[in-house]
Amino acid sequence: MVASTRSLEMPVQYIPRVGPAMAKGLLRLGIHTVRDLLLYPPFRYNDFSLCPPIQSLRPGEIVTIQGTVVSFENVFTKSYKKLARARIQDKSGILTVIWFNQLYLSKIITVGSMIQLSGKVDWFGHELSMQSPEYEIVSNDKETLHTGRIVPVYPETHGVSSKWLRGRMRFALTEYDDLLEDTLPDVIRSRYAFPRLAQTLESIHFPTSLAKAEDARKHLAFLEIFFLVLRSNYTRAKWIQTKHSPILSLSDEDKESFLSFLPFTLTSDQQNASAEILQDLGRSVPMNRLLIGDVGSGKTVVAAFACFASYKNGYKSVIMAPTQILAEQHFNSLQEIFRKTTIKIGLVTSKSKKSDDLSAFDILVGTHALLTKEREFSKLGLIVIDEQHRFGVRQRQLLEEKEKSHTPHILTMTATPIPRTITLTVYGNLDVSILSSLPVGRVRVKTWLVGNEKRENAYKWARNHIKNEHGQIFIVCPFIEESESMATVKAAESEFLRLKNTVFREYNIGLLHGKQKADEKKKTLEDFRNRKLDILVTTPVVEVGIDIPGATVMIIEAAERFGLSQLHQLRGRVGRGMKQSYCYLFSESLDETSKIRLKTLETVYSGPELSEIDLSIRGPGEMYGLKQHGIPLFHFARLSDQTIMASAQKEVRTLIEKDPELKDFPHLRIRMEKATIEPSIAQN
After folding, report:
1. Strands 82-89 and 62-76, how do they pair?
2. Multiple choice CATH, 252-435, 3.40.50.300, 2.160.10.10, 3.40.720.10, 3.40.640.10
3. For 50-148, which CATH superfamily applies?
4. Whole-number Å distance between alpha carbons of 246 and 251
5. pLDDT per residue over 285-328, tens digit each?
């Protein structure tokens, strides 16, 4: 079969020299169409633009040389190594080039041919050489793609190399140049002096300088963010116009009744968030609100207030959590809150029978098991989704579709700390409530960075703490099993055995990690909660949804390998009661930047603030996509693109205020109606 039309939507297998076999490899990289290929970004660049004569080469330089192949031979050394060795000559001298285990090159690189090579110059024995460089046979009528320039390096998969991708990328850019159309309004494109989209894609894939590549990335990042924000605003407007929900209002007497159930007073943040949510529930327009709160800030009680409103109006509520542990945690918390009422709370997990009658429950808490076709709900007024980033859009839709007669109100919750600017961008279609203060009586967790030289003193303190204060201890390790490449990192299983047999041999110690069976994990947690265990060695599986009131110490091994936000999440597993709690950040890193970054946890206790600090210190590195929890995948936007985000939001706001239905921009309106977001290239 041959594709009949030229289109950016053409399956990638019909591009010359791709075919069905290579297309399978491209599918693993998420490349399905010509459009996907053009939007596939390099994750870094090799600067091979320096082209000195051979005579002037110095050890350690990364350069490109061009010359004639004067000799080529395959060599078998005394140590049984297989080498391909060439001698390359230019007007100034001769250089030896070595490739390991690539004897097939003798059929490609022939004596007398003109060749260009890019790589690092270093010693091989007693002579300067290049080892395993990129190479290209040079001809007068052919552009070099792999040497002598800024060369893109792409994420690869088995059978699909960056070198092969560069060739197909060049073909696609040349062949489909006339189909590339930027749908950004002209007035906005002019304001930011953005070039033609085809020129921008040329600069991202084959830049003439690293500065040009960065300019192109920023242009594409703006487009991605602009269309995400525009879609959020447009979707929100359509949601308000077309969806209708039951009015779930509460009288002042009902509000006082709920507050009387609680053994504590709501914080000002909890009061404000509850008021915002109850105001939303009191309207026929569906609520679509995000509740962001640090670990331990009390999101569950705010959600319970909303569930109470649904119950008082004769409707049911569903709370969905990503794990059985978290679902059981919510179930237990709600039972405690509503213990003095007749509200019936049910729990649905993978172990629940599909034939169970759910109609008797007023509030259902569960995992993905709630989504099965066999489970039907009636009079569903409220859906609460915890750690919402762990559920796909389709999963959330399936839950909404359980109610046929109306649209349930939706409250999503997350403890993932992300910068405010990114929150406003990603969740532009949601109203946002934020819990930033700790509940009354909750004590901040004292935190210290502990170097290797103070490790034994910390262990001694921990033993005394268990003995004298009867506290319990989490010890978190980054990996389950030792890896040869990560030999210095403390792995949970080996650390468990070491601590059990040496440091804490007089105490009861348990092990928890994600590869254990559900029953085993549940029993371990119950033993820890019931104080049958003094210490729990674990992987970051405890990051979300585990509440052990008796746990007062958190020890985190190899803390430098975690982001500040994740460390903050882990720290939130202790200090759940009223006792003073402690967090020790063990680190063997001698890097000064790492120490500065980790020491911020000693004084900063706000999740969003820590995420901002982590971003400013660590930077985005080579990450071209926003791959943090709760953030949709972008191809070109970075976490550090705060200025770009603010600019894109401003442009969308101005556009929507003047033309909320996009009547003057029918091409944008058509695009907003589509189910998928393709932020950089117009739908043709």
Report:
1. antiparallel
2. 3.40.50.300
3. Nucleic acid-binding proteins (2.40.50.140)
4. 16
5. 889 888 888 777 789 999 999 999 999 999 999 998 888 878 88
pLDDT tens digit string along 71-101? Answer: 999 998 877 788 999 999 999 999 999 999 8
Domain 446-604, architecture per CATH: 3-Layer(aba) Sandwich (3.40)
Question: Residue 593, exposed/middle/buried by CB under 10 A (0-12, 13-18, 19+)?
Answer: exposed
Angstrom CA distances, 141 to 144, 203, 430, stand at 10, 21, 55
- Please check whether residue 125 is in contact with residue 112, taking contact to mean a CB–CB distance below 8 angstroms: no
List the one residue out of 257, 389, 244, 386 whose CA is nearest residue 327: 386
Q: Answer yes or no: same fold for 252-435 and 446-604.
A: yes
Residue 511 is encoded by which pair of tokens?
């092990």
Per-residue pLDDT, averaged over 141-166, amounts to 92
> Would you call 479 helix, strand, or coil by DSSP?
strand
Task: Report the run of H or E that residue 247 belongs to, with start and end.
Answer: none
pTM of this prediction exceeds 0.85: no
Phi, psi of 172 (to 5 degrees): -65, -40
Q: In what order do the strands lie in the sheet with 288-293?
A: 345-348, 363-366, 316-320, 380-386, 409-414, 288-293, 431-435
